[in-house]
Amino acid sequence: MKKRRILATLLTGVVFLSLIGCGSPVKETKGTVNSANEGGEEKLKIGVSIMELTAYTWYQGVVDGCNQWQDENAKSKGVDVEFDFEDSRSDVQTMLTNLDNMQAAGCNGIILFPADASSAIPTMKECVDSGIPVVVGDYAQNPASDNDVVWSTFVGHDMKALGQKAGEEAIKYLDGLGKDNPVCLFITRPTSGQVSSDRFEGFKETILASYPDAKIIEEGDTAAGNRDSAQTLMENILQRESTIDVVCGHNDAEVVGAYNAAMAQGRNEIKFVGIAGDIDVLGWIQDGNEAWLGEVLQDPVVLGYQATDAMIKVLVDKEELPEKYELPEPEVITEDNINNYDWKNWKWLG
Questions:
Q1: In this protein, which residues make up the domain named Periplasmic binding protein (predicted)?
Q2: Averages of pLDDT over each 10 residues, the chain, 350 residues
């Protein structure tokens, strides 16, 4: 009898455990942190999908910024961050594949530097629904409704301010010309949409505020968007424009291409203001090349650093972040202050 009772008890236990095993599965929340390294820091895996790492070295600075945050802050925050950097190659489908792979790899959070203004929104919704927060960097998104805004914050430079700073540098030069109606050229990049438009508007508004009679020429580089295409565009502009005082543009590729065209045609009277960060431009400024008024620095290291900082605030500090995560105002590098910058050691310059 005693043996039967023991057997019945064991069978009851087996049935009970079987029922537990057949119950509803526990949903895994990928965005939670549940492991630590030997030092006791929480291990975080953060996916970083970057718009362009192959053809445009500027984004290498974003990688440097993320790693710099890790080096300077991880220990004090009690975290050990593993970054998964992926190159979208300026291709929307590659970007979306990167996001899918990051979800499958169990990333705790994703920092997205998008390839365009809206294609990633449905996938971002999937990420957030799965418990994976998203921080958007550099390229502001264009949501169709408030329900599309699922990212924790946007980390990006003030594109209009970049144009304004370039305009301010141009005015310093124009003030010495004694002309009421100077001529300024700005080469936009139409495929960059609002980003390029904002830079142009900032430049234009700043110039016109000081010189209401100025002629502001906007030309769009609809070709490759590199030095060669900008040079070809500038060659055509120079055929019809006998006077150009200052040239600026969407980025350094556009301005350097215009500079090359002007120098080839002996148009030494034209001055140039760069935007972003280019090793040749900074070298010319360092060497005292009088054609270059300055370089408006769009620092990618700061961008990567602050995007990582924002993600840690979401994952670790559980903070609700503002719609936009502010970055420092853009700086202008000129012959007068270039020695204050360690630009020769910026690996991302190209």
A1: 56-318
A2: 38 36 36 59 96 90 98 97 97 97 98 96 98 96 96 97 98 97 97 93 98 98 96 98 98 97 98 97 98 97 98 97 94 98 92
CATH architecture label of 159-297+333-345: 3-Layer(aba) Sandwich (3.40)
Q: Which helix H or strand E contains 47, and what residues bound it?
A: strand 42-50
Token pair belonging to 225: 């968007």
Q: Where in the chain is the domain with CATH 3.40.50.2300?
A: 42-156+301-319, 159-297+333-345
In sequence order, which residues have a C-beta less than 8 Å from that of residue 202 and are 6 or more positions away? Answer: 159, 160, 161, 162, 163, 164, 165, 166, 167
Largest CA distance in the chain: 114
Q: CA geometry: angle at 312 spanning 310 and 313, to 5°?
A: 65
Nearest one of 298, 310, 307, 306 to 346, comparing CA atoms: 298
Query: Residue 155 is which amino acid?
Result: V
**Which two structure tokens, joined as six digits, stand for 274?**
């760069």
Pairwise CA distance, residues 36 & 58, whole Å: 34
Rounded Cα distance between 339 and 68, Å, is 23
In angstroms, the CA 133 to CA 118 distance is: 17
Q: Which fold has domain 42-156+301-319?
A: Rossmann fold (3.40.50)
Among 189, 269, 257, CA closest to 221: 189
What pLDDT digit, counting tens, does each position of 193-231 carry? 899 999 999 999 999 999 999 999 999 999 999 999 999
